[in-house]
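Please, structure for the following, as tokens.
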Amino acid sequence: MSEDESALFLASMQGVKPLKASNAVTPILSGLSAEGQQRHHDAQRRLALEKLSLELNDITPLDPLAVVSVKKQGVQGQVFKLFRQGKYDVQADLDVTGLSLARARELLFDFVINSQASGLRNLIVIHGTGVNSQPIPAKLKSYVAAWLAEIEVVQAFHSAPAAWGGPGAMMVMLTKSEQDKLDTAEQHAKGTHRWA
């Protein structure tokens, strides 16, 4: 772009202000009452929970001391390497040891979804090794791994370093929240992103 074009562009953009994310409208829910929105949210939650199976035949049993490592498409290799090494600060944790499968599933799902919506990216879930669990060893660990693989906002998960619980805990990496995605896009557009 030449200097004349740049000057013309800047002159024409003078006084233009970026849209605020708080002005965003959710079209599906915009016509619903608060009660209707809550019913919609509850229905969406029920559907998502049903996808997280409680059936033993639907999971792959894990060894109690096995290191679990899952990286979904889109996670850069170096980012995953640092994540596996525990280089990212844990922002929140959840302990599901000793809970029923149904309760653990519910808490795990809500924890992940609420954490992601709040802008948190790195979590830890303590599930125990389950060396003595029945009918199979590492029952809860096996279910937690299967559930995390099914939750859309989970980008990666890996057994925690020894200092954070080792094979009895799982580090979880989440996608950015919608607000964080907007903020990053805005920073790139302005050229103010920390890498720009």
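Residues 34-50 form the longest helix (17 residues). The radius of gyration is 21 Å.
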